[in-house]
Amino acid sequence: MPSRSQLVLLGAILASLGVSLLSSRINPYYLDVTTSVGINIILAVSLNLINGYTGQFSLGHAGFMAVGAYTSAAVTMFAGPRLLQMTGSNTFTTELLFLAALLAGGMIAATAGVLVGAPSLRLKGDYLAIVTLGFGEIIRVVFRNIESLGGALGLNGIPSYTNVFWTFSAAAVTVYVVVSTVNSTYGRGFLAVHDDEVAAEAMGINTTRYKITAFVIGAFFAGVAGGIYGHFKLTIDPKGFDFMKSIEIVVMVILGGMGNTVGVVLAAILLTILPEVLRPVADYRMILYSLLLIILMLVRPQGLFTFTRRAMPSAKVGAHGK
Fold this sequence. Notes:
By secondary structure, the chain is mostly helical. The chain has helices spanning 4-21, 28-53, 61-87, 91-120, 125-144, 164-183, 188-195, 197-202, 207-233, 243-256, 261-277, 285-299; strands at 155-156, 235-236. The chain has a two-stranded antiparallel ribbon with strand order 1-2.
């Protein structure tokens, strides 16, 4: 008997398929915004596993996204035509090729997560943030200097495989994996590391292993999001994965509420749609957007979608309240 979370996952995938089949009747602008929403949900939820549930502070998520984007694009651009020629080009093989490209992007990004996480996750707080920030900048500079991948001009002419089905199916799988992992017996280790790392180590929990696991899972889904992003934009360049992109993802996590998956999903939707809503005032759009973010951070520092119940007064014991 499937669990409730599995039924929700199946429902989300079927809904994505339905919207995808009707996409020809939907305004392309709304489809573009919807696809951007799905990509940001993947990025925010995957980072929430690292920053929210495990209590680390990573500023290198855009770097993992870049690794996934370039890897997926390389598969479909360079290896794809030959594979399609060998197997025969049809809808099934092209979709299978795209799935393979996304998985390749996710796996290479996860490998990068291991390479970065193993030596750096023994650090804490600001030191970890600086290391992950440095990683993101190194990745951007490396891709800028690889001429076979377009160098500073980036990759152009990426095949258009992305649609609403792939985007929101990947988003649904991301949410399902993160929620199921955190709520599992193994996932309690993430929460233990978040609550008190010293106490967790005293209880025999290998905190470094749990932090690396969270880092790898988050990096994998960031790589998948990068692959979808590249095939959605049809062009990628190193400037699209800079420090500000990482900050944008971190803001979604903080605004939604650290360790609150539903809140992070809602924040990703809100922060993707808000700039579009402000488009009529294009000259002041970014000023208003930044001002709204500052106000929200000041008014709701615990997260816009984090709500706690008011504590009930304790009952008095005895005649004199003792």
